[in-house]
Structure formats: structure tokens, C-alpha cells
Amino acid sequence: MGDTDSKARLRRRVYGLAAVLVLQSVCAVFFVGDAIRDLHFSGLSGHDVLEAAVAVALVSGIVFGAIEMRRTIEQAGRAEEAVTIASGALGTMIGEHFKHWQLTGAEANVAMLAIKGFEIAEIAEIRRTAASTVRAQLTRIYAKAGVTSRSQLVSLFIDDLLGGPLPGMEATEETSSAER
Amino acid sequence: MDGSRPVPLRLWDPVVCITHWTVAVCVLLNFTVVSEHSELHEWLGYVALAMVVLRMIWGVVGARRARFSSFPPSLTAARDRARTMLSPGRHGHGEANRSHNPLGALMVYGLWGMLFAVAGTGILLENFGEASQIGEVAEEVHEVTANLLVLMAALHVGGVLLESRLSGINLIRQMTWSRRGKSGPV
Ligand code: HEM
Ligand code: HEM
Questions:
Q1: Which of A7, A15, B134, B157 holds its CA 20 to 30 A away from the CA of B186?
Q2: Closest to A26 (Cβ–Cβ): which among B13, B15, B50?
Q3: What is the pLDDT of residues A129-180, one digit of tens each?
Q4: Which band of pLDDT confidence, cut at 50, 70 and 90, is reported for residue A3?
């Protein structure tokens, strides 16, 4: 949750920066165009030196804004990478379970996609098989894992991931296991 | 485990998207409906120029995929690319995702060059007036380059559609904001 929040914030920031850059660029070009017109009508003067300085300032502003923007984009990219690495560690753990349950290669693949939240139709499309095949594979996977639904399959890993009861949460832990 | 998953959709960053569509709209408006003698024509031209200038800065200091170094102009690479596109069944999938393909890159540099020529001559025309000698030349060049620009843009759109069909990657969607929540760095 916190991760999607920070990603959304970064994305908003990127779009805000882009809007400012666009505005700055339009202003800079209009300003320079105007300055050229003045130059044409009245020849070189002290005023033009000032205008040249302003133009340089405007363009530097754009360059620095652009660099800032690239940093933000790279930061967003790194945030995404971190998620991938986390799922890498989780992936290893999941893989060990699959081995323990003696899933076949195809079943492991389907199980992983199911855990990642893909629908049956999507899994069928990704694996280029019929939806009925995927459904049959899922039934076998659930049987081997000793669960009856996808949400149970996922919650097995959530339990493992959380390890033990959270501090101050023992009571809730009990009610939730009683539910099951 | 990931071998069977489809190539992730990588999007162009907002600077590339905004500058592109602003330029396209300004050019098409100026070429079609906006009267060439109106102030609006000049304003739209300035806005298009501003977008190209911003894109030039972004091409130097911007995001990796948008930088000029990611799509250097290369005639040989473009020729190879054209050959691959023309021979059925041999178009690469993965590489299409990095930046502009070499053939597209040539067109992109051509379009930018033409945009500078059109805007530059337009500004000359505006400053010197059609009656002066410079203005007369500028008017000729402005007209010719504007026509060339639109011709190249038409080829460009054709190339985009062809490449999208051959590679199975919707290039136009990469240039828009759709589905940005699902994948891509930003
Ligand atoms: C006068 C009109 C147009 C001009 C001058 C123009 C120019 C350009 C330029 C300079 C780029 C490179 C973008 C960058 O790296 O910043 C580009 C890319 C692109 N344009 Fe246009 N364009 C025009 C119209 C269109 C239209 C109408 C479409 C939609 C069909 C379109 C679709 C695209 C796409 C999809 C790309 C990305 C190509 C890729 O993935 O390599 N363009 N265009
Ligand atoms: C960037 C996109 C632009 C496009 C596609 C474009 C296109 C055109 C076209 C097709 C004409 C008609 C030429 C003729 O038949 O003689 C024209 C005329 C003109 N353009 Fe542009 N233009 C652009 C930018 C500009 C800019 C930036 C300026 C000035 C600031 C400008 C100033 C003019 C003027 C003054 C004329 C009138 C020429 C005449 O009296 O025939 N244009 N433009």
C-alpha cells in the first residue's frame, strides 16, 4: 500500500514538473522572439544585454528543471526495482513450497500466475492454452497444496511471510485462526 | 518463471508525450485550418518551436530512453532495420522496446530539422515582412519546408502503423497516457 502511494506521489510530481517545463519553454521562446523583434527595430542597446541575461536565466531554469525531472523518474524506476527484488525473495520461498508439493513445471507456472493475481482467462492467454486446461491445473494445484481456493493458496504464503504473531496483535491472530 | 510473460509495456515519459502531441497539433492546425496571415498562426508556430527546444534539452539531460545517445542516427543500422522489416517473420521483438528503432530515429531527426527550418523561416518572414528581399526568400523556403514537413509526418505515421503491426507493439499507446498505472517506470 505504502509503495503504491509513494509511486502515485512520484508520478504526480513528474507530471507537475513536466507542466512547469512546458510553460517555461513556451515563455522562453516567446521572450526570445520578442527580444529579436526589438533588436530588429531599434538596434543593439543596453536593454538588449539585460534581455540576453534574462534569456540565459530562463534557459538555465529549463535545464535544471529537466535534470530534476530525470532524477524523479529514475527514483520512481528504482522504487519499482525494489518491488521486483522483494518479489524475488518471496519468489524463492514460493518456489520451495512448489517443490515440496511436487508441482510439475507447468503447474508451478500456473500457480505463480494465479498468486500474482491473473484471472483464468489471462493465464490461458499468457500460456497459450485453453481456459479449461488452466482450470484443471488449478484444481490439481489446490489438491497438492491442501487448499480449496486461490485465496487460501495466497494466504499460506502471507502466513509464512509474517512469520509469527505481530506484537500486540495476538488476540486478532487467534480470532483469525478460529475463523479458519 | 517469467519467460512466458508478455513484453512489459514501456511508456515514453511525459516530456516526450506532451512535446510530441503539442507539436503534432500545432503543425496540423497551421497547415490546415489556421489562416497563414493570422497572429494565431505565429503563436502556434512559436509553441511548436518551444516544444522542440524543450525536447532538445530533454534529449541531452533527460531520461535514458529519451536521450539522443539512445537513438543515434545511423544509416547502416537504418538500412538493416528496413531489410528486417521487409522480410516477413524476421522482425525482432525485444529491441523495439528500447527507444526509437534506427529507421524511426532517422525520420525523427529529419522531422526535428524540418521543424526548425519551418519555424526559423517563419520568424524571418514575420520580422522582415514579405516585401523585403529576405522576406521573399524566407516565404518561399517557409512554404516548401512546411509542405515537406507535413509530407514527412504522413510517412512517419505510415511507418508507425507498419511497425506497430509488424512488432505487435502498439507504438501509439506507448506515446499516450493510457494504462500508465500498470507498468512502465512512471
Ligand atoms: C505533424 C505531425 C507530427 C510530427 C511533426 C511528428 C513528429 C514526431 C517526432 C519528432 C517524434 C519523435 C518523438 C521524440 O522522441 O520526442 C515522433 C514520434 C512518434 N510519433 Fe509523431 N509526429 C507527428 C504526428 C503523429 C501522429 C498523427 C501520430 C499518430 C498516429 C504519431 C505517432 C508517433 C509515435 C507512435 C511516435 C513514437 C515512435 C516510436 O515509438 O519510435 N505522430 N513523432
Ligand atoms: C511550425 C509550423 C508551421 C507551419 C506548418 C507553417 C505553415 C505555413 C504555410 C503552409 C504557409 C503558407 C505558405 C504560402 O502558401 O505562402 C505559411 C505562411 C506563413 N507563416 Fe507559417 N508555418 C509554421 C510556423 C510559422 C511561424 C513560427 C511563423 C512566424 C513566427 C510563421 C509565419 C508565417 C507567415 C507570416 C506566413 C505568411 C506567408 C504569406 O503571406 O504567404 N509560420 N505557414
A1: B157
A2: B50
A3: 889 999 999 999 999 999 999 988 988 887 777 765 554 444 444 444 444 3
A4: very low
Which residue, among A121, A69, A87, A59, has the nearest Cα to A3 in the 3D structure? A87
Architecture of the domain delimited by A102-162: Orthogonal Bundle (1.10)
Q: Which of A145, A64, A84 is nearest to B5 (CA)?
A: A84
Crossing angle for the helix pair B102-128 and B39-61, nearest 10 degrees? 140
In this complex, the residue of A15, A63, A109 whose CB is nearest that of residue B57 is A63
Q: B99, B118, B123, B47: which is closest to B110 by C-alpha?
A: B118
Sign of the dihedral through C-alpha A70, A76, A80, A82: positive
For A117-124, the CB contacts below 8 A with 24+ separation are none
Phi, psi of A99 (to 5 degrees): -65, -45
Confirm or reject: Cβ of B41 under 6 Å from ligand 2: yes
Ligand 2 test: best mutation among B27, B116, B125, B144, most atoms within 8 Å of CB?
A: B125
Q: Quick one: which atom of ligand 1 is closest to the CA of B66?
A: 15
3-state secondary structure B132-173: CHHHHHHHHHHHHHHHHHHHHHHHHHHHHHHHHHHHCCCHHH
Q: What is the ipTM metric for this complex?
A: 0.81
pLDDT of residue A127: 75
> pLDDT (tens digit, 9 = 90+) per residue, B42-64?
999 999 999 999 999 999 999 88
Within 10 angstroms of residue A65's Cβ, the number of other Cβ atoms is 19
With both helix axes pointing from N to C terminus, report the angle between A2-42 and B14-31 in degrees, rounded to the nearest 10.
40
Residue B138: CB atoms within 10 A of its CB come to 22
Residues near B14 by beta carbon (within 8 Å), at least 6 away in sequence = A14, A15, A18, B177, B186
Rounded to whole angstroms, the Cα distance separating B122 from B134 reads 11
